[in-house]
Amino acid sequence: MSDLAITALLIAALFLILGSGVWIGLTLSGVAWIGMQLFSSRPAGDAMAVTIWGSASSWTLTALPLFVWMGEILFRTRLSQDMFKGLAPWVQNLPGRLLHTNVVGCTIFAAVSGSSAATCATIGKMTLPELTRRGYPEKMVIGTLAGASTLGLLIPPSIIMIVYGVTAEVSISRLFIAGVLPGVLLAALFSGFIILWALRNPGLVPKADTRMTLAEKLHESRALIPVVLLIAAVLGSIYTGLATATEAAGVGVLGSLILSAVQGSLNWQSFRDALYGATRLYCMIALILAGAAFLTLAMGYIGLPRHLAEWISSLGLSKAQLIVALAVFYIILGCFLDGISMVVLTMGVLMPTVNAAGIDPIWFGIFIVLVVEMAQITPPVGFNLFVLQGMTGKELPWIARVALPMFLLMCVAVALIYVFPEIVTWLPEKMTVRG
């Protein structure tokens, strides 16, 4: 049976099982089992047991539930309410004024969350009613929030970076630090777009609030200081080599518990809700990772990754052409799958090709995160679009349309990190790594 026929059969099995409503993790395991039973001499049951145990017992993966828990704890603090009060005075004089709270708020919360959906929901609860009440155009409020909330994937700690690091066997600490400058770049592009829009449409921007002195601005921003210190502790410990990504995640959990206790929002109910929320999300991700690990093993025994890499190599694509082809591939894939599934489904197949093309795996990880970010705001399976639809009641196509400028700015960011790869690689090259 040819490779093309085997691939077509497995893809058909994948969509058939997914379409029947089976969980993604179990679907991946089922497709892997079918592949090994039909096209490999190794017993599928033995391979499944060994692979899933190896995936589940990975120490590197410990950072994932800890960072998820940290985000869940802070999600239940008064951070979202305090953030608007703290940020608003500093952006009043910028063209676009309080629209920038979407971008800055998402950037800050992304650094303590790791999830774009959580970032979208948290900052949306804060800015959507406030900006609408003040008279800011609805399409700009929702569009900028849709784009800026994807920073939850790019600015560390990022769930998707941990998943990529585990599946591609790349240093998670280096990935985290590599995401800092591209995250700041993308936030700057979003704010730049708001400034240009405001300069072209000055009549649509409400007037500024009462002018405040520097002392008054600092007083309003006092609630942000503990969060900024927590971000500095987590990222600083990784960058200086004082802690691995897993140890830094432990620091983040401890710091978030202390912060929520100081704010008075830590009680048995909020602690239990945060723990349950983190457990549910991690179990879902762990099941997907286990299924993907088994599928990757099955693909290896069948030989599909090697044959695909050989086929792509035979096309004679330049590095730039390969990057463009992969970007289009992931954007299309993102119309049907969530980000984690996209990464775990494709890494085992694509990494040999990426390595053969001489592409830095750290750089490629940030590239993957950027294109997965695009998928978060592309219908029909854009997770952030669903979150915003639930919060605003707007139609999905309308939200996707107002988010289109943010999508195009992400394309610009991908082009910039390709032309200037040092945006991604400079900080990881300067850092000290432990573990």
Written account of the structure:
With 435 residues, the chain is an all-alpha fold. 77% of the residues lie in helices and 0% in strands. The chain has 24 helices and no strands. The protein has helices spanning 3-19, 24-39, 44-56, 63-75, 79-91, 100-113, 116-133, 138-148, 151-154, 159-168, 172-178, 180-200, 214-220, 225-239, 245-263, 268-302, 304-314, 319-333, 339-356, 361-376, 383-392, 396-402, 404-419, 422-430. α2 (24-39) packs parallel to α16, α12 (180-200) packs across α23 (404-419) and α14 runs antiparallel to α15. The longest helix has 35 residues, at 268-302. It is globular. The mean pLDDT is 82.
Strands, count = 0
Overall pLDDT level: 82
- Residues in helices, as a percent range: over 70%
Q: What kind of assembly state do the chains in view correspond to?
A: single chain
Tell me the radius of gyration. 22 Å
Give the biggest sheet.
none
Query: Pairing-aware structural class of the strands and helices?
Result: mainly alpha
Q: What is the number of helical segments per DSSP (H or I, 4+ residues)? A: 24
Strand content: under 5%
How far is it from the N-terminal to the C-terminal residue, by CA? Answer: 44 Å
**Given the C-alpha coordinates, what overall shape results?**
globular
Q: Which segments are poorly predicted (pLDDT under 50) over 5 or more consecutive residues?
A: none
Succession of helices and strands: HHHHHHHHHHHHHHHHHHHHHHHH
